[in-house]
Amino acid sequence: MDDWQKALANAVSDVDELLGLLDLSAKDVQSFTPKRFGLRVPRAFVAKMQPKNPNDPLLLQVLPQLDETMFAAGYSTDPLAENAQNPIKGLLHKYQNRALITLTGACAVHCRYCFRQHFDYQSNMPSAQVKAEILAYLAADEKINEVLLSGGDPLNVSNRRLAQWLDELAKIKHIKTIRIHTRLPVVLPSRVDNAFLDMLKNCPKHIVMVLHINHANEIDETFAQKCQALKQAGVVLLNQTVLLKGVNDDAKTLAALSHALFDAGIMPYYLHILDKVAGAAHFDVPMAQAVAIYWQLLARVSGYLVPKLVQELPNRPYKTPVDLHKFAAD
Ligand SMILES: *Cc1c(COP(=O)(O)O)cnc(C)c1O
Ligand code: SF4
């Protein structure tokens, strides 16, 4: 087992243990133990939380809260109607030039607002035969010039298996870019080990890594050093954020995030409106408020530090830019 795999296996999955590590008691929070999609958070991420703070923006992202169990109208288990855009199990092909492989259903961390928390990963785990089908599908469609490795978290997969995918994808001429959508380097920086860096360095395609960071406190020195190593390996680093009530729903917090990202060598890419997935209603920021925050962000930071505000609507051929002019700037 690699070191990062040991750390992964040693993630915190017990609410009381998490609270204990943070000097909090059960009375400080409204938590519970879910039957499915339970608490899961690597210790390296817990270490970035502030002790004794029940409203810590990192804690709120991972702590199962009783609010999850409340029914909310308009929230569903498949908010993006993705189950219908699944040509082969393990492949999502929603947009013309890019296709997404769900390499694994597993994640290192269980984000409580995750829009794929109800997705049927078990039947979407590519077996050897399905892998061949996926590669044949990608090879047959010359319009596909970019392949996304996603999940779950694709970096949950061993270096050996990742290398096999990269080798196979490298053989397909019309694929120019391989994009890795991952949160693992943030929650467990040791995942970015030398074998992984070498693999990326030696890949003949462009490599883009889209990280998922919601708050500046997620960025520490250890993680920033890994970002430097990734950049030296030729990787383009981008970030996507989900706008979350109680975590990052104000312009000051988002501006601090953009600056911290830039310091670490990462460019802001997307700011997502929360998908209406069952169990996540307590993170919702109403659209008018989201847009008001965004106008304030525009006024605060350089243009290249402003992520695109988008919303994923079912059956559109792109992620939809939010119409800022429907809501006045204040
Ligand atoms: C988000 C997403 C992509 C990538 O879209 P970009 O706008 O290029 O970031 C591709 N495929 C699927 C299924 C997606 O959900
Ligand atoms: S890392 Fe991404 S896919 Fe995994 S639980 Fe978090 S938001 Fe969902």
UniProtKB/TrEMBL annotation:
Q: Which InterPro entries match?
A: Aldolase_TIM, EpmB, Lys_aminomutase/Glu_NH3_mut, rSAM, rSAM_sf
Matches recorded under PROSITE patterns: RADICAL_SAM
Q: Where is the Radical SAM core domain?
A: 93-308
Instruction: Please verify whether the record's keywords include Transferase.
Output: no
Q: Catalyses which reaction?
A: L-lysine = D-beta-lysine
**From the UniProt record, which GO molecular function terms apply?**
4 iron, 4 sulfur cluster binding; isomerase activity; metal ion binding
Q: Which Pfam families match?
A: Radical_SAM
Instruction: Provide this UniProt record's keywords sorted from A to Z.
Output: 4Fe-4S, Iron, Iron-sulfur, Isomerase, Metal-binding, Pyridoxal phosphate, S-adenosyl-L-methionine
Co-factor requirement: [4Fe-4S] cluster; pyridoxal 5'-phosphate
User: Where are the N6-(pyridoxal phosphate)lysine modifications?
Assistant: 319
Residues bound to [4Fe-4S] cluster: 107, 111, 114
User: Does the keyword Iron belong to this entry?
Assistant: yes
Matching entries from SUPFAM superfamilies are given as: Radical SAM enzymes
Organism superkingdom: Bacteria
Describe the family membership recorded for this protein in Swiss-Prot or TrEMBL: Belongs to the radical SAM superfamily. KamA family.
- Name of the molecule in the record: L-lysine 2,3-aminomutase
Species: Moraxella caviae
